[in-house]
Amino acid sequence: MNPTLLVEVTSDSTEEYDRGEKLNHYKQCPSVSTVLLVSHEARRVTVVTRTPRGWEERDYGSGERADVQTPRLSLSVDELYAGIVLDEG
Question: b/e for 61-79, b at 16 or more Cβ within 10 A?
Fold first, then answer.
């Protein structure tokens, strides 16, 4: 009802919407402090975080850990994609 963290897995047909209009809708929800966008194309997680200065985005790739402040968690990008074959070509 009042989420603090939202996770979106993109797809070919939704990526532009997920990273644009839909993300803007999420940013209007007062309880949301973090949005994770998980790419369907590459081992990439975008963390979008509400800060006192506004919204900030950071991309994490293979070999990195995506750090989230609220709720406090750290995700290994490689572990998140373990067992998933991506068409990165």
Answer: eeebebebeeeeeebebee
First and final CA of the chain: distance in angstroms?
A: 39
Distance CA 11, CA 16 (A): 9
Q: Is the pLDDT of residue 89 over 70?
A: no
What is the pTM assigned to this prediction?
0.90
User: Which class is domain 5-80?
Assistant: alpha beta
Q: What is the dihedral of CA 17, 21, 22, 27, to 10 degrees?
A: 150
CA angle 17, 77, 16 (to 5 degrees): 10
